[in-house]
Prior knowledge:
Elements: E1 4-6, E2 9-17, H1 21-33, E3 38-41, H2 50-53, H3 74-78, H4 89-102, E4 109-110, E5 115-121, E6 126-131, E7 136-144, E8 167-169, E9 184-188, H5 192-204, E10 207-212, E11 219-220, H6 228-236, H7 238-247, H8 266-279, H9 283-286, H10 296-313, H11 317-323, E12 337-338, H12 341-344, E13 350-354, E14 360-363, E15 367-370, E16 375-377, E17 380-383, H13 392-395, E18 398-400, H14 407-410, E19 429-431, H15 444-465, E20 470-472, H16 474-489, H17 519-531, E21 537-539, E22 542-543
Parallel strand pairs: 2-3, 2-7, 3-4, 5-18, 7-19, 8-17, 9-10, 9-17, 10-13, 11-12
Antiparallel strand pairs: 1-2, 5-6, 6-7, 14-15, 15-16, 20-21, 21-22
Helix pairs in contact: 1-15, 15-17
The structure holds NADP nicotinamide-adenine-dinucleotide phosphate.
Amino acid sequence: MTTSTDGATSTVDAVIIGAGFSGLYMLHRLRDEMGLRARVFETGDGVGGTWYWNRYPGARSDSDSYVYGFTFDRDLWESWEWSERYPESHEVRAYLEHVADRFDLTRDITFGTRVESATFDEDREVWTVTTDAGETVTATYVISAVGALSASNTPPFRGIETFAGPTFHTGEWPHGGVDFTGQHVGMIGSGASAVQATPIIAAQADELTVFQRTANYVVPANNGPVDPDVKAARLEDWAGIRERIQQSNFGFELYLQEKGAAEVSDAEREALLEDYWERGGFHIWLGAYADIFFSTEANDLVRRFLDRKIREKVHDPETAELLIPKDHPFGCKRNPLDSGYFETFNEPHVHLVDVKSNPIAEITRDGLRLADGAEYTFDTLVLATGFDAMTGPLNRIDIRGRGGEPLREKWAEGPRTYLGLMSHGYPNLFTITGPQSPSVLSNMPVSIEQHVDYIGRIIADLRARGATVIEPTKEAEDGWCAYNQEIANATLFPTANTWYMGANIPGKPRVFMPNLDFVGPYRAKCDQIAANGWEGFAIDGAAVPASEHVYTWAVAG
Ligand code: NAP
């Protein structure tokens, strides 16, 4: 056991909150590579983080499997083989269990335990962490590995408690699965989770009605087995793939075209989009035209292509029109990947109901009622209503920094951080892929590894200096917050009502939460900050101002 006990309170160097990708690698880094005493607390009864909870039908990663894992260890890379192009939820869980076994991680993870609070003691310069199991732990460092999409969102529908049948949230799916055979199912939501679940629920249920508030640009996944030669080449190319994804914009081997959609001929654009549509995955989004993120005209050119594809797939013209997004640019709302989603609406027992023009007024005993009084009945309700993203998981913990200030109060108008990594007034509290870091706009494991390595580097440097606390300066943080909004406002992202903007949660401040530096440039920026003596941070009170490069946008091509 790596903890020592001091009366009723145990003491460790670091408490890590969460045992998904982030928490597992952070534990390995701190404990096995740096010799620190670390403990992980995890709400679930096993490892996996978001993949522990998201077991709804069809749940799988939208990242190509060969890059959806750790790259820090070549032997680990070579020890695992994915079965398909995109890994299913249970396979990601199996992978993370494999990682935990390989590095003997579970002996320092306390499962089934939620961290309730973390309070900074200014006199002793330590954190006190409490759990719902009644345990108290003091630690020099607290590292949030809670993920960006782990706080599920159940909208406050009037009457939801009166529904007579079972209700399932995609983000908290029963481990034993749900049998929809013979059922009439109502599903609220049409985001990535709903898009994956729809064809599978439809295949089982007698009737499925999808209540859609916002249509999404859904592009083909093109899932399937990977050519064995391609697999073998990737296994061999560990160093090359690692380097390329670390330097890329999005953590994938996808590169935006030199010319924009509006700069090429119609024929050239059509040919490229057609090719990328056939390849499937995020090519059309993150491997095609950069100007779609800046110019409505360019974005519309790609939208017309996508609109046409939807009309080709969906037989009923009215349903097709409903499934074509009308209110946001392509690529500024996370586009889901499709494995038969649109075609499902050609089936006679599958119905689509628009709840934007005619919102859900209340859930009833037998189904739901819309604002105009229309009633729908079903046996089972599926809530594919997403998450209180990015800030939600942190705000659900009572985190108090200097002066006892609750983090959720500091963040009442939106997250305030430096690099998405730390917040002023909360010394030695690190947020892996926190808000205002590239996080959700990247292939997460790549960003997670970068943050974990960087946090490890910071802590190693502190200890080498004999220093105790690090925190960002207020000036650096104010600068980072302003910079983040400034670069977001240079794009079309803020024009869409998305969870990136907090727009899915009533009352949540409308602030663009991810950082648009993207993976490679953000990594370079972090490295430069370290090389310049931890610019923007104060170590034991000695501050180093952040220089111009921190607030310079250098998005790679
Ligand atoms: P989501 O994208 O936020 O979708 C939630 C859906 O519920 C949306 O259609 C939303 O409509 C609707 N909704 C929310 N509140 C509503 C209300 N009061 N009335 C009617 N409709 C309401 O959530 P998600 O599908 O769970 O996906 C969230 C994110 O998780 C994804 O964007 C992705 O990043 C990640 N994810 C990834 C994968 C993968 O890699 N394969 C799979 C699933 C999820 P609005 O759009 O109008 O808000």
